[in-house]
Amino acid sequence: MKDSFGNSFTKTLATLGVAATTAVLFITTAIASGKLGGLAAYLPIAILLTSSLSISAIWLFGRPRKSDSTSLKNLRELETRVEELEARIHNAEVVDAFENRLAEKEVNQRFRTKPAEQQSHTPTLQQ
Question: Which of 44, 81, 91, 121 is the most exposed place for a label (fewest CB within 10 A)?
Fold first, then answer.
């Protein structure tokens, strides 16, 4: 299953956080090693193990959702509904444009016949 960019980006940020924390712990251990006594010999190994486990957990368990999850199904249904509504809107716009052209044609036709009717009914003035 392929990771999305957002999922990989989040995992990378988490890994960088663990790496930064590991570096700080190593520096702190190196500086304070004299005060820690016999514990200083085991502390770097413990730091490496815990940071390795943390990074492994991030990349193994931080998977994207499975394609059969409920939220993805809902998303697909919504996308299908949006496509259907867009098609309906497009059809309504086509019908509206057709009605506008038909109405304009009717108005033009009535306007052309009215002046001819008015001229035939208008009495002419004779002097």
Answer: 121
Q: Token pair 């016999």 is at which residue?
A: 38
Per the confidence metrics, is the pTM higher than 0.70? Answer: no
The parts of the chain modelled with pLDDT lower than 70 are: 1-3, 63-68, 115-127
What is the largest distance, in Å, between two alpha-carbon atoms of the chain? 133
Angle ∠(76,89,108) on CA atoms, nearest 5: 170
**Residue 64 contacts by C-beta under 8 Å, 6 or more apart in sequence?**
1, 3, 4, 7
Looking at residue 126, the DSSP 8-state letter turns out to be -
Alpha-carbon distance of 85 to 21, in angstroms, equals 50
pLDDT (tens digit, 9 = 90+) per residue, 22-39? 999 888 888 887 777 777
Helix (H, G, I), strand (E, B) or coil at 63: coil
